[in-house]
Amino acid sequence: MSSGALSYSPSxxxxxxxxxxxxxxxxxxxxxxxxxxxxxxxxxxxxxxxQGESSSRPKNTAPKKLAPIFSKARDKHTSTLAxxxxxxxxxxxxxxxxxxxxxxxxxSLSSKRFKGTPSDFKSAVPLAERLRxxxxxxxxGQKHLTGPESLLMSMLDSGIIGSLILWGPPxxxxxxxxxxxxxxxxxxxxxxxxxxxxxxxxxxxxxxAKATLSLAGRKTILxxxxxxxxxxxxxxxFLPCIERGQIQMxxxxxxxxxxxxxxxxxSRCRVLVLERLTNDDIRGIISSAVERVLASVPSERLxxxxxxxxxxxxxPMTSQNSLSRPQSQSSQAPxxxxxxxxPYAQLTDRVIxxxxxxxxxxxxTALSLLELVLTSKPDRDEHTLLxxxxxxxxxxYDRVGESHYDMISALHKSIRGSHGSxxxxxxxxxxxxxxxxxxxxxxxxxxxxxxxxxxxxxxxxLAMAALQACQVIGMPECRINLAHCVGYLSEAxxxxxxxxAYNRAEVAAKLDPTIPVPMAVRNAPTALMKELGYSEGYxxxxxxxxxxHNDYLxxxxxxxxxxxxxxxxxxxDWNEQELLRWEQEGNGGRLWEGRSSAQHRR
Length: 602
Hints:
The protein is mostly helical. It contains 28 helices and 7 strands. It has helices spanning 12-18, 36-41, 76-83, 89-101, 118-124, 127-130, 143-146, 151-158, 174-185, 199-216, 232-235, 239-244, 257-260, 263-267, 279-295, 299-308, 349-359, 363-375, 382-391, 402-416, 420-432, 437-452, 459-472, 478-491, 497-511, 527-531, 576-585, 595-601; strands at 21-23, 30-32, 164-167, 188-193, 220-225, 248-253, 270-273. It has a 5-stranded parallel beta sheet with strand order 4-5-6-3-7, with helices on both faces. Helix 15 (279-295) packs across helix 17, helix 17 runs parallel beside helix 19 (382-391) and helix 20 runs parallel beside helix 22. The protein is elongated. The N and C termini lie far apart (117 Å).
């Protein structure tokens, strides 16, 4: 345009005719469409149109298509979604898009589904989740990790913990400890579960962590629960970022990391073992939970309950039935267990002891049982309540997990040690929690040859018969057949000559797999082979009335004894201390009858 030309600038009212007015998705005030970006950049402080005026548009001008987030139409129900306590704008947009695809309006949904308040959502969260510790001082158990002199606390004070693998049973505090470490380190915390996430989710977190570290200098801790569910290929995704220090990963697993995680990942992480919580730890957790629950009860209700309850004469508390938290872990006054907890009269000492016993070191189980007790009626019969608690807890046993192998190992070693009572106990433990009887029977077949072996040749046929009985009869009757076999194998004499002979022969065979078979013991089915010297010089033993000699072994191993003679104890150890221990604990203080003869053969 030339310098002499007049420039034209539309007035404010003309711009309102040219551009429609939209509602700001943040402050909900009317803004001209052309100014929406400037309005958002100014934190909703400028370019706000008067509330009373409506935008005008020529009748023949078609409105421009806007993104759903700038949509002017906002019915009452959509506002409820956007302003709700748990719905973000992105969730609202997804809801509207989905509704459009299904060709019905969001307002057509029943409003009854969205009448929940924040307190309603909070009450739906399990007690175990609501009462998670908020600082390390509230964390119970695992003193070898959280104690002041522990290696983990030393690393935490230095500000560098690296990548960790937390290995422990369920409910021992793996997730809680990870969150507390991230909070103490003042790092971004991202949490994923290998049961519902894949490598795409992990890569998104890794990219976010790298961007946060480069732009803001802030580290990110990724907590991956059930990390053993990832395949070995999926576990390799973490290696570059852990190697460069772009992310600190904390993986939680209930499985043995040596079997379920790759060596490359283990070499870049520290494995921390979390122990099962003790009874004192569980009592402390229950005590803390009751304190926090009682703090939320209105004081008027407590006063009315205290006035209505008759005084209870009790004896001084002992350390056995006290529920108070250890003095070092709480500055609050301990909760007395002398009588029922007001206003929870059903929470008696006996119920608390049952919760501790049934939880078996699992804090989540203990708090779930406590929640069942607190939600029951105060006048409920104690015997009925205890029966309900026992029925609500299932035995913790994974038929493909570590306890599966631990128990079968305990059964096998009890048989090997001729401890029939212990063997019966482990057999019962496995069967009562649903172990496959065929799995046990197959192990008994192995045990019959490995540990009884040549000392009792009837052991192997009996074990095979027990295996066949399990196949034909099945549970629950085949438990009798298994008990029969376990009892016999436990009391049978033990001999490992055959088992050890094979192990020695295997070592020799692996030294040189190419050693030829001696000519005398080779097979000679054809005339050509006989002409070549196959089987030449072999003495057929049944043809002689006396023993004859043949070279059965290769020249390199002639004279070696792989199968030891009966009574040969040359490779056996003598431990006087262990023998004395057995005589005191396993033989009733009596001397072993074979002591003198064994000492003579030494």
